[in-house]
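for the writeup, i need someone to sanity check this before i put it in the appendix. the sequnce is what the collaborator sent (i think, or maybe the updated version? ugh). structure was predicted straight from it, no edits. if anything looks off just tell me and ill rerun, i have time this weekend
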Amino acid sequence: MTARGAATAPRGRPRDADRAGRRDALLETAMRQFLAHGYGGTTIEVVAAEARVAKRTVYTTVGDKADLFVAVVRRLGDRVVNAVAPDAGDPVTDLHAFGVRLVRLMLSDEAIGLHRLVTGEAATFPDLAARHYANGPRRYIGVLAGLLAALPPERIAVRAGDHEVLAEQLFTLLMGERHRRRMFGLDPAPTEDDAAAHVTTVLELILTPAEG
């Protein structure tokens, strides 16, 4: 019986991987539709047709249109939150690495497009805006707070009350005018080197220099 169980176990894993792959493809299709046609102009029917799945599959896999949009936002964020940071045994390095990934994500064409979309729809769909914020910026601020909490207290040069408050301020510094200029279409998405230099400059504002 043990041998039979061992033999059947591998067959379950590809099915799980296939389901994850189909869901990812569905969300990629949905993102393209949202960016091309806006929230109001995107329908479950069109997303299902473009993804070559049944309309019912969208509902059972993700949910309604609002759930679909939130899942698209969260999928983008997973690239940042779930990415493996360099393990140098240094919390400053981890904070810097996350900051670079965050800047590149938030200033990417996809994230800027979704941000413009939800900003334009916020008055009509306030719950959508709230869910976008919770699964986007608020989520990233929570990660920043955890990374700041891992720093030795003497490395933090400012007094902001607590790590959550400081994380909000750090998020604002990382986005700032760069995000505004991207929203207005004035700047291109940053390169890896540009993002790294920007994060370094920002962290110098809130961290004390390392000893030695």
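The longest helix spans residues 2-37. Confidence is low (pLDDT under 50) at residues 1-9.
thx in advance!!
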